[in-house]
Write a structure and sequence with these properties.
- There is one protein chain.
- By secondary structure, the protein is mostly beta strands.
- The protein folds into two domains: 1-52, no CATH class; 55-175, Nucleoside Triphosphate Pyrophosphohydrolase.
- The protein is built from two helices and twelve strands.
- The strands form four sheets. It has a four-stranded mixed β-sheet, with helices on both faces. The protein has a three-stranded antiparallel β-sheet with strand order 1-2-3, with no helix packed on it.
- The chain is elongated.
- It starts with 30 loop residues before the first strand and ends in a 5-residue tail after the last helix.
């Protein structure tokens, strides 16, 4: 029996927060309790609330010398085949800036210098409920553009010729970093 959710085909997405019935630390069945003014799952054995927090992710906005924006075409779900900014999830022990530069390198082959925070957005997600996306502007970068990791293509686009962008947060970050 497969208990793994299919984030593409399930109408409501992944298992949802209500389907998480057990404490992730000790395995005891969780109960519902009021905690910090909100109903939450609570573990009687650990005597702790079980917080359901957004999953942190990053994306990067790069512009070339012609002020075109760099996009990657996704090779995996969700939104397989659609265009978005280079990005992905932050790993444990990684800073958001380091994650942004790592994802840029993995998906495009480019290495970036300093990453400057553009802003934060929350986005609904069928598997994780909510993703917290940090958008970064990378002004200094180098290398040879080569799609990799979960990108099937990478290319530069002028603002007037952008393809449909897979994620609303990415559309926002592009708008917030106009050409110079």
């Amino acid at each position: 029996m497969n208990f793994c959710p299919d984030p593409v085909s399930e109408p409501g997405g992944g298992p949802g927060l209500e389907a998480k019935r057990y404490c992730p630390y000790c395995g005891t069945m969780a109960e519902r309790r009021e905690w910090d003014g909100m109903p939450r799952r609570f573990c009687r054995r650990c005597r702790l609330p079980i917080y359901d927090n957004p999953v942190p992710a990053v994306c990067t906005v790069l512009r070339d010398d012609r002020q075109r924006v760099l996009l990657v075409r996704r090779s995996i779900a969700p939104r397989k085949g659609e265009w978005c900014l280079p990005g992905g999830f932050i790993e444990l022990g990684e800073t958001p800036e380091a994650a942004a530069l790592r994802e840029l390198r993995e998906e495009t082959g480019l290495t970036g210098g300093a990453a400057r925070l553009i802003g934060l957005r929350t986005a609904p997600n069928r598997l994780y409920h909510t993703v917290l996306v940090a958008g970064f502007r990378v002004a200094a970068w180098g290398g040879t553009l080569q799609p990799g990791d979960d990108a099937m293509a990478a290319d530069w686009f002028s603002d007037g010729a952008l393809p449909p962008i897979a994620f609303g947060s990415h559309r926002d970050f592009i708008k917030e970093t106009p050409p110079c």
